[in-house]
Structure formats: C-alpha cells, structure tokens
Amino acid sequence: MLTYVRRLGIMTTFALLAAISTSSCAQQAAAPHTTVARAVTLILKTGGSDYWQTVRMGAEAAAKEFNVALKVYEPGAEDDVSGQIGLVRQSLVEGTEAVVLAANDYEALADVIQEADSQQVPVITVDSEVSSPQVRSFIGIDNYKAGRQAGRKLIELIGEFGRIAVMSGGKESRNSQERERGLLDEIAKYHGVQVLKKEYCISDETRCGEHVRNIIAEHKQIDGIVALHAVSSIGVAAEIQALGLAGQVKVISFDSTPENIEFLQEGVIQAAIIQNPFSMGYLGVKHALGALNGSEVPGFVDTGTKVIDQENMFWSDNQKLLFPFVK
C-alpha cells in the first residue's frame, strides 16, 4: 500500500494537474451552453474506486461548464445489475432528461434503455457498452485493441517462449471478454507461449491474490501475468510482491490506481494499459447535452489507451493519465 508520504505526493500532483486536464477536455468540440440547466443523471458501475471517482469528476467538470444539473448514482457493488437497473428507472421517475450510464452488464441493461428511449430520454454509455440500438453514443475504449496492446507488451517482456496466466474481473463482463479475446489473439501468434490458467475475481483483491498463489503453487514456474482490470491488477501485484517474485514474474496491469502506480514505480508491475476516465465522464455529459439539444452525436468516441512503463511514466502527457486529480 502507499506510504503516507507517497500518497501525499500523489495528491499534490493531482492538484497541479487539475487545471491542465480540465483545459484539455474543454478544447474538444464544445457543447452549447444553456441558460436553463438541463437535468442529466450519471449512473456509475459502483463507487469508491479512484477510477469511478475520476469518471464522476469529469462529468462534474462538464456539468459546471455547460450548466447541467447533474445527479450521480451508483449501485453498492459492480455485480449488482438489478440494483443498477433500478437506479435507471428511479432517474426516469425523477424526471431526468438524459442518462449517462456505465453499464454493469452488456445484455441486461438493454430493456431499461428501451424504456428510457420510449420516454424520449437519450442514453449515453461510458466505459462499457450495452447491446441496444437505442444507445446514442458509446464513449470508452476499444477493449479488443487494448487486449492486443497488452499481448504485444507481454511478448516484448518475456519473449516468444513462456508460461503465463490471465486474471480478469467478471467472466460475463463485456469489457473483460473483449480484452481477453484481444490478448489471446495476439499471443496466439507465438506458439511458444502457453496460457496456464485464466481466472476471474470480480472486484475482490484478496480473491485475485489467492488465484495467483494457487497458480504458482500448482505450476511452479510462471513467466508473466496479465491482469485485465484495476482490482485484479492490485491483487496480482500485491501477491507477486508478497511472494518475492517481483521482476521475475512480469506483470501487465490495467488502469491507474494509486496502488498500481506505486507497484509500477517499484518494478512489481512492468507495464500498465491506461485509460482516460476523466474524458469519459466529461464527454458523456457533453454529448448527453448535445443529444438533448438535437445535435448529432458520434456513435462511438474512442478515448484511447496508452502503454505506460517505468521508462515513460514521467513523461508529461503520461503523468496526466497516471494522476487524474481526485478529491
């Protein structure tokens, strides 16, 4: 875990980068500023994590800039699909004019999005897609491409021969499925790379660590682990460090939690695939307002990913991604 001094340093960096990050998003095509505040609801997958709080802060920045009355809701857990559906319905009853949704399930949210559309309430999805033609715009990353990025970096680190494991979130998660598919397609080009195990740990760091421990106990030698979302990344790196295998087992992670940043700095994680959650929240609200005002909104906005390692983590542009400012 982060020491107090290091966490204080990171929080200071957050503050210094705030003005830069806000300015960067504001320079994108501007949504029209309205004199009467429009009601928009942001519904996250869950709360508490730095990733989702950064999505929220991006949304709040856009709401302030474009005069939007923003409400934010979140279910208690990332696998609480029925709870999230209930929050969408609650927002419709409360009279929201648009919904920005980070969906917990690719299929299950389709019906409630149909309900919103039937009430002329546009839905913008961020981070995670939904299988619904009624979604006006999806703002996030190409998860298949991100999986391939992770695969290429892994091969760079371990070579064309090795034994690896894959750790992910929910087995039914669309994001996880696409990242895993991209990763496996990329490493399939190298017949000397063997996938020993694929495991899923939802949002439970302890369970991720147990999976790592069991894999290593069963197979003895392992050359690399790819962790395909933020929580699994923390669990994997913490266990590798606890086992004294830092640097021996190459770790590729996803996202920029404070824990993962320190693991990257210390060489426990060799590379991270980093998203831009601030832009997802900001553009989600911006395009929700555009849809309300009758503007054409893009069907897909790719907010992009970057592969960050010890060599480039202190580059200015990468610092903005690694240290999205938080409260």
From TrEMBL:
Residues 41-295 form the Periplasmic binding protein domain. It comes from the Bacteria. The keyword Signal applies. SUPFAM superfamilies: Periplasmic binding protein-like I (SSF53822). Residues 1-26 form the signal peptide. The keyword rRNA processing does not apply. Keywords: Signal. GO terms for molecular function: carbohydrate binding. It is found in: Cell envelope. Its main location: other. InterPro entries: Peripla_BP_I, SBP_2_dom. PROSITE patterns: PROKAR_LIPOPROTEIN. GO terms for cellular component: cell envelope. PANTHER family: D-ALLOSE-BINDING PERIPLASMIC PROTEIN-RELATED. Belongs to the bacterial solute-binding protein 2 family. This is ABC transporter substrate-binding protein. It comes from Paenibacillus xerothermodurans.
